[in-house]
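tokens incoming
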């Protein structure tokens, strides 16, 4: 036995060292007072509404026009101020006269005096009796029998008159414009005066040309001589044109 206990003791692990005890949890000394205050201020049924709610009576249901404003009650008229109804009607009064109509008699008179219905024209094209209306078919001369058949419509005549008037106005404006741009004819007196003035100018230019020096050795003298020659040529051309043509036209520019 001693050997067994010795073997058993040799097999067991060594004992663990004793650990120190945990410190006690901290508890505030005000915890009880805080708990009492929380229970005191806590409201029951906070998220579910009040515990008891007054249920409306079934007789107090919402009625029609119950929320509209009601007019003030009328004051009772005093006995002395109350007016009696008039026995005589006013001038503007028109009594309603009700007349009974006999619709049966009225309808009978309308049928007797009315025109009878005209029979419709049919066209039968098969031996089985198939028929169709003749008027909308195009075989009945409906439009050629009208009173205004072949007459030009009023809107066409009115349009033609407007076009004719516009054409006349356009032609008149063109003629007026041509008259403004037409050439003016010189009278005989004006022609002779212009011819005399041109000849006088030619004489003055010719005199200036003859008074030039014979030797043109400078550029200025050459330019002056060429200028006077050009003026003489232009004047001679104008004098010849007016003398050769008895009628002269001048364009309005």
């Amino acid at each position: 036995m001693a050997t067994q206990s010795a073997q058993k003791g040799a097999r067991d692990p060594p004992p663990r060292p004793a650990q120190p005890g945990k410190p006690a949890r901290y508890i505030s000394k005000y915890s009880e007072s805080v708990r009492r205050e929380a229970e005191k201020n806590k409201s029951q049924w906070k998220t579910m509404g009040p515990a008891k709610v007054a249920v409306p009576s079934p007789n107090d249901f919402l009625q029609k026009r119950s929320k509209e404003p009601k007019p003030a009650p009328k004051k009772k008229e005093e006995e002395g101020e109350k007016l009696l109804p008039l026995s005589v009607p006013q001038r503007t009064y028109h009594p309603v006269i009700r007349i009974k109509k006999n619709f049966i008699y009225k309808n009978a008179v309308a049928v007797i005096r009315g025109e009878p219905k005209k029979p419709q024209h049919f066209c039968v094209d098969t031996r089985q009796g198939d028929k169709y209306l003749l008027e909308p078919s195009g075989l009945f001369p409906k439009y050629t029998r009208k009173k205004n058949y072949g007459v030009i419509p009023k809107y066409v005549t009115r349009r033609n008159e407007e076009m004719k008037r516009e054409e006349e106005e356009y032609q008149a404006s063109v003629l007026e414009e041509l008259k403004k741009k037409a050439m003016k004819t010189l009278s005989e007196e004006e022609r002779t005066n212009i011819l005399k003035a041109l000849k006088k100018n030619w004489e003055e230019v010719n005199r200036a040309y003859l008074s030039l020096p014979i030797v043109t050795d400078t550029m200025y003298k050459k330019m002056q001589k060429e200028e006077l020659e050009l003026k003489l040529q232009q004047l001679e051309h104008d004098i010849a044109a007016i003398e050769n043509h008895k009628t002269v036209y001048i364009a309005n520019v």
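note: The first strand starts at residue 122 and ends at 124.
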